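Hey, I was hoping to borrow your eyes for a little while. I've dropped the whole record in just underneath, so have a look:

——
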Amino acid sequence: MNRLFGAKTTAPKPTLHSAISNVDTHVESLDVKLAKLTAELTTYQQRMSKMRDGPGKSALKQKALKILQRRKMMESQRDQLQQQSWNMEQANMMTDNLKNVMTTVDVMKDTNKNLKKQYGKIDIDKIERMQDEMQDLMEMGNDIQESMSRSYDVPEDVDEAELDAELEALGEEAEFESSLGLGTGREGAEGMPGFMVDEVPQFVDEPPQQGKVKEAAG
């Protein structure tokens, strides 16, 4: 039966990555062959440029023509493989983007479920009551501070007439002290009361008289 229908293969299925890698490898091998054909054409071109027209030059021209045909065929094959590789890369990018989208959706679902579970444990009424209690405590603290900072027996307002009378009384008191000799004379200059100034002895000797100096010299 296996000879008729074939045996079941157990090899892993190819993926886009492996297919892209195989195509790129084939493209690289074609590039090597194309470079070799281009080098041969260059050699023929240099040889024919130095030859005169004749059978020898025509033979080289035919060989160069065949090489050019082979190169065009390989270039066409390489372009097709490159297009296939590009198409597979686009499909691979779309697959990766789809996987990322599905992963994001799954994460959002789990997050939404967890948020509902957590918010379901919160009692809004308790939070409101707590906020009201905090506000009451703040108002109570303000009342206590206001009561503690209250002044005792201190007049709140001062009349301007009362201030003028007080200043006038101070001026009259200063004039009275001045008339008694307090705060004047040497007290202001040396910081000493007047009744103590006269009692301070003078420690500077009097200059000697001229007559007495002559008698002592004689």
